[in-house]
Design a protein that fits this description.
single chain; 253 residues; alpha/beta; D-Maltodextrin-Binding Protein, domain 2; 2 domains; nine-stranded mixed sheet; 9 strands; elongated; disordered N terminus
């Protein structure tokens, strides 16, 4: 008579263990994914904002694609699914006007010439790029950081040297500079701020030529338009602007 009671106790002990994984799986399946396409220069700040957004929306998972704005615009026009697009240039946002009709300029950034601290060429001004043997790089002109770099360099007027490489996005420019592969590079001020322990920056004469604006908007085909609007609102909020300002981005009205 004692054996059945032992089986009942064991069964009751196992039951919660069996039920727990099913409950956890159901919770994961019920979560909603919000896909954000954002310029590579926004990687650090948007990741922070994304975590805050998830904390306020417990059933939402925010996923990012951080690439050059021109690449992201091309992907959107080719049908890639996304809920929000944040570009590092007005022109790249204009390229997806039909998909992202309503946008807001939420911040700005400026390119600077950056060098490792204690660089061997003693680079102290932009014209020092003309020093023989010096290797420097920038973004390709097709991406926002490259377009801004070209405009900033044109404002200086006396640079005859050429970059040894034109990179597809600013993060690869920063990586090569920090790793010591080149002597100097044109990057965003925000990238300098993120690496100011190992880099120095030199500003261009024309702040206007070196500056690029960042628009953001909800993708019209988004299946999560309500959540997408909430994310944009968080970026535009005092909290979002504070995160961007602390990272070296320029406040806009």
């Amino acid at each position: 008579m004692k054996r059945p009671s032992i089986f009942i106790v064991i069964a009751l002990a196992i039951l919660p263990l069996v039920a727990t994984p099913a409950h956890a799986s159901l919770k994961r399946n019920s979560s909603t994914t919000l896909t954000i396409f954002a310029a590579s220069s926004l990687g650090q700040t948007f990741t922070t904002i994304g975590k805050a957004f998830e904390a306020k929306n417990r059933d939402v998972s925010v996923q990012f694609s951080f690439l050059a704005s021109s690449t992201l615009a091309t992907q959107l026009n080719a049908g890639a699914p996304a809920d929000v697009f944040a570009s590092a240039s007005v022109s790249d946002m204009a390229a997806v006007k039909l998909l992202v009709p309503d946008t807001t300029i939420f911040t700005a950034n400026r390119v600077v010439l950056a060098t490792p601290r204690g660089n061997n060429f003693h680079i102290n001004k932009i014209i020092d790029l003309n020093k023989r043997g010096l290797k420097w790089i920038q973004c390709a002109p097709i991406v926002p950081c490259g377009a801004a770099a070209n405009a900033a360099m044109a404002s200086e007027g006396r640079i005859t040297s050429k970059p040894v490489s034109l990179e597809p996005k600013v993060s690869s420019v920063v990586a090569k500079l920090v790793n010591g592969e080149v002597d100097a590079a044109i990057i965003y001020h925000s990238d300098y701020v993120a690496n100011k322990g190992v880099l120095r920056e030199i500003r261009f004469k024309s702040a206007q030529a070196a500056t690029t604006q960042y628009p953001i908007g909800v993708v019209k085909t988004s299946s999560q338009s309500v959540l997408a609007k909430r994310f944009v609102e968080m970026v535009l909020s005092a909290y979002g602007r504070k995160i961007l300002a602390e990272a070296g981005f320029i406040r806009v009205p």
